[in-house]
Amino acid sequence: MKVTGRLAPSPSGRMHLGNLLSALLAWLDARSAGGRLILRIEDLDPDRCDPEKAARVIDDLRWLGLDWDEGGLEGEYCQSRRARYYEAAFQKLRDMGLVYPCYCTRAERLAASAPHGGEGEPVYSGKCARLSEEERLALERAGRRPAWRVRVPDVNLSVNDGHYGPYTQNLRRDCGDFIVRRSDGVWAYQLAVVVDDALMGVDRVVRGRDLLPSAPRQAWLCRTLGYEPPEYVHLPLLVDKAGRRLSKRDRDLDMGALRERYTPGELTGLLGWYAGLLDQPKSVEPKDLLAGFSWAKVPKNDIPAGCP
Ligand code: GLU
Ligand code: ZN
Asked: What is the whole-number distance in angstroms between the Cα of residue 104 and the centre of ligand 2?
């Protein structure tokens, strides 16, 4: 089967070095296999995303020299325009009796719906799954608007990560019932990403290791909805001197600053060097990295993002 990969940026701010490394490796992974690439804009959260930011993200990817076969701002490649697919999947889960309303506090809900969960994310207790009908109606009458959670089974689920190897979670113990729709109606990343990858025919998911803990629940949700999960390939994170993951808050590493400091070739070379594909940073185009690309060269430990 032909490889279909995807670039899936969240346009909640400017791209930074870590997002670019993910994008470059997703591009190399698909292109080195002669595969296709889809650009999907993950703009689920209307409070944090807008078309202007998305356009800037797209411009940044092009500036670096990446390309894709379909996707972008037109058509149905922005998650903000795919609600009917999420709705349909939600109904399917509901028909299977797998979703229930959760009335827990806003703080808890937000914590549980962040895409970068996993380590440190509280596992939901399942409290609202046990509400009686009277308790539920009382909460409704008090004006509480629920989020919706999907009930996970008590099973061990393994994904065989293309870079890190087997990764297993007990869904009940390590993941817990997770949110598929927020109380404000916004679809959760976990549902949207599974539905989109399935409907778009994506069979290779390349992304940062911070999302590895989400992979078992996504594979499970994918199968539950009747699709074959993609292959997951996670890459190490870029970290600062103290070993902390680079974040969007480090403004000197966002694309605004990076585009002033480097040419596209220099930045691609720096990323290629981080990824173990070059002995030293030098100016290259993404396609120059294709011949030597191999996951075996990419480190597994997180990468200190020093600039020589
Ligand atoms: N949109 C997510 C991000 O930019 C990536 C999600 C994914 O690759 O599954 O961090
Ligand atoms: Zn609850």
From this structure: 4
pLDDT at 114: 46
Neighbours of 237 (CB within 10 A): 19
Number of C-alpha atoms within 13 angstroms, CB side, residue 41? 31
Locate 127 and state its tokens.
């409290």
Q: Is 208 helix (H, G, I), strand (E, B) or coil?
A: strand
Q: Judge contact between 32 and 293, C-beta under 8 A.
A: yes
Nearest-atom index, ligand 1, CA of 9? 4
Residue with CA at minimum distance from ligand 1 atom 6: 8
Q: Are 168 and 156 in contact (CB under 8 A)?
A: yes
- The residue type at 46: P
Ligand 1 centroid to residue 207 C-alpha, Å: 7
Single-letter amino acid code for the residue at 167: Y
Predicted structure pTM score: 0.94
CATH class of domain segment(s) 85-189: alpha beta
Q: What is the DSSP letter of 287?
A: G
Q: Could you identify the atom of ligand 1 that is nearest to the CA of residue 218?
A: 9
Answer yes or no: is pLDDT of 268 > 90.
Answer: yes
Residues 190-226 have pLDDT tens digits of 999 999 999 999 999 999 999 999 999 999 999 999 9
Ligand in closest contact with the CA of 61: 1
**Domain coordinates of the chain in residue numbers?**
4-82+191-304, 85-189
Tell me: domain 4-82+191-304, CATH 3.40.50.620, correct? Answer: yes
**Which burial class, exposed, middle or buried, applies to 258 when counting CB atoms under 10 A from its CB (0-12, 13-18, 19+)?**
buried
pLDDT digits (tens, 9 = 90+) for 43-53: 999 999 999 99
Strand intervals (E) in 120-260: 147-150, 156-161, 165-170, 178-181, 204-208, 231-235, 238-239
The length of the chain, given as a count of residues: 308
Mean pLDDT estimate for the chain: 93
